[in-house]
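Is this the right way to post structure tokens for a design question? Let me know if I should format differently. Anyway, here goes:
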């Protein structure tokens, strides 16, 4: 584990150093590219920018003039570098000045080389170039001294040592924070269950933030070490200055952007506060309606949850629409691209979702069912366990959870056996056909007695019987009873059918109504002494 962690750390270190090197290489490369793209050429001596030449002199282009000045500078010996700089008029060109080191010419500056936007004359431009050449000569002289080289090496070694120390400290701290995260997320033993509380989440977030801050510390240490090593040598000092200027400009841009975003963020905070306050008021209103303390005609208990969600979506949608222009960078191309992407995703992928959502609103606001109702929809029969935004879940009599999309509910009849039950419970019924030779009053009485003897059927309200039809060969009866457990509808109905058979057999009444030619001489029924013939179990004593 320790070797793997160090390998990861070294890989990250290599990536970080590579990025820093690319930035450093890009700093001087930018000027070279920009000068190559135009006719002008930048004169750089000892890694320091002196002046930009644009005109042609005696058939020599600006780039040729820059190359000639560089060769002349490199040809200067130590004695020449100690001589003073002099500026004299260019003999062959009236609007031109010549810069020389001692008696040796270095380069000429023409009036055509000046940029009109700089608003400086030829003498001022040459004086500025002279000071820069003087700085380049001083840096070259300092670079040739052994004390300067030793001092630079010592400073570079100190920067590397401090950076390594910071990296080692960061590695240890990062490992400590990782161990703390694992300790809070994993139980002490395999059988233990970790206890997660709100304070634990805050600690985890703090450890994650601290681990990120550790790598930020490494980035800062890398920048300071690179800056110190570059500034230690006269040759690389301009690169250090450009690096420091780049970071300073970047930091200023970040600070200015942050301060500029403060008014917009405050406006967003006010908008969110108002939206939250409105939602709190509506939640309190819905709470009073749900508890029965307040009655509003268009608000029903069954639709209260959906109405609360609709109002929440409406409130926060309006708040987001109003707050969007105040988001930092909301007018940037990145935000525009995200808006186009999300719009395309919603257009292509939300058709089915919107259909189910609208169907769900129809189901909820039609109050056709609610949680706990015993329903039958599209061949599925059971108790509603959840009424969701996109689908309804039903637990059938086999204790199976079946999910029905809302579009299925709106496209098929919903048989709700509980909606009108009230305090009387869910109703069950069964039909039976008995011949005309049996008095209907006797049939009514036997069906009611059988229903009353069935376990699970309520005694109040009492079972009752209707005659549903007078056919050619029999009378059709239907017995109704109330139950309190909708999920046990099938077992209770089965027990009631068995009780009906026992009751009719007890009184010698046949439950046989076929299409026949002649009535048998004796009644067709099962006497009580034959009820428990094998393989039936004997009655309990």
């Amino acid at each position: 584990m320790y070797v793997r962690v160090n390998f990861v750390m070294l890989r990250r270190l290599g990536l970080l150093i590579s990025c820093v090197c690319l930035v450093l290489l890009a700093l001087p490369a930018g000027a070279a590219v920009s000068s190559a793209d135009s006719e002008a050429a930048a004169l750089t001596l000892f890694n320091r920018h002196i002046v930009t030449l644009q005109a042609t002199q005696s058939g020599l282009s600006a780039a040729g003039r820059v190359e000639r000045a560089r060769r002349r500078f490199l040809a200067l010996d130590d004695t020449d570098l100690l001589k003073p700089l002099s500026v004299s008029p260019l003999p062959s060109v009236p609007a031109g000045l010549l810069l020389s080191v001692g008696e040796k010419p270095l380069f000429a500056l023409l009036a055509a080389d000046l940029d009109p936007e700089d608003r400086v004359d030829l003498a001022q431009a040459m004086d500025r170039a002279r000071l820069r050449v003087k700085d380049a000569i001083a840096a070259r002289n300092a670079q040739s001294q052994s004390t300067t080289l030793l001092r630079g090496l010592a400073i570079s070694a100190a920067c590397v040592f401090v950076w390594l120390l910071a990296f080692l400290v960061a590695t240890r701290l990062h490992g400590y924070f990782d161990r703390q995260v694992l300790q809070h997320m994993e139980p002490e033993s395999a059988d233990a269950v970790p206890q997660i509380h709100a304070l634990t989440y805050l600690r985890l977030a703090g450890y994650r933030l601290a681990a990120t801050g550790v790598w930020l510390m490494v980035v800062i240490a890398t920048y300071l070490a690179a800056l110190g090593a570059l500034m230690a040598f006269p040759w690389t000092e301009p690169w250090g200055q450009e690096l420091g200027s780049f970071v300073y400009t970047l930091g200023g841009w970040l600070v200015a952007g942050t301060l500029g975003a403060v008014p917009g963020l405050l406006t967003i905070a006010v908008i969110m506060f108002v939206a939250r306050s409105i939602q709190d008021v509506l939640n309190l209103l819905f709470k009073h309606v749900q508890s029965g303390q307040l009655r509003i005609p268009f608000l029903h208990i069954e639709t209260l949850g959906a109405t609360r969600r609709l109002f929440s979506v409406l409130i926060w949608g309006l708040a987001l629409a109003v707050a969007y222009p105040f988001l930092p960078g909301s007018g940037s191309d990145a935000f525009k691209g995200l808006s186009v992407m999300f719009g395309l995703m919603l257009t292509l992928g939300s058709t089915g979702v919107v259909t189910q959502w609208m169907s769900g609103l129809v189901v909820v606001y039609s109050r056709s069912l609610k949680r706990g109702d015993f329903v039958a929809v599209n061949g599925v029969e059971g108790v509603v366990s959840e009424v969701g935004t996109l689908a309804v879940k039903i637990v059938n009599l086999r204790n199976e959870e079946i999910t029905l999309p809302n579009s299925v509910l709106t496209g098929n009849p919903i048989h709700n056996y509980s909606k009108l039950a009230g305090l009387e419970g869910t109703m069950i019924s069964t039909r039976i056909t008995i011949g005309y030779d049996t008095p209907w009053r006797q049939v009514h009485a036997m069906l009611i007695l059988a229903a009353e003897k069935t376990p699970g059927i309520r005694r109040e309200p009492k079972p009752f019987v209707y005659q549903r039809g007078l056919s050619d060969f029999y009378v059709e009866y239907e017995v109704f009873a109330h139950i309190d457990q909708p999920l046990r509808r099938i077992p209770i109905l089965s027990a009631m059918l068995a009780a009906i058979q026992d009751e009719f057999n007890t009184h010698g009444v046949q439950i046989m109504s076929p299409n026949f030619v002649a009535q048998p001489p004796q009644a067709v029924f099962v006497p009580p002494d034959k009820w428990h013939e094998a393989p039936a179990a004997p009655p309990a004593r």
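Format looks fine. Someone answered above. Worth noting: DSSP finds 13 helices and 13 strands in the chain. The CA atoms of residues 289 and 448 lie 43 Å apart.
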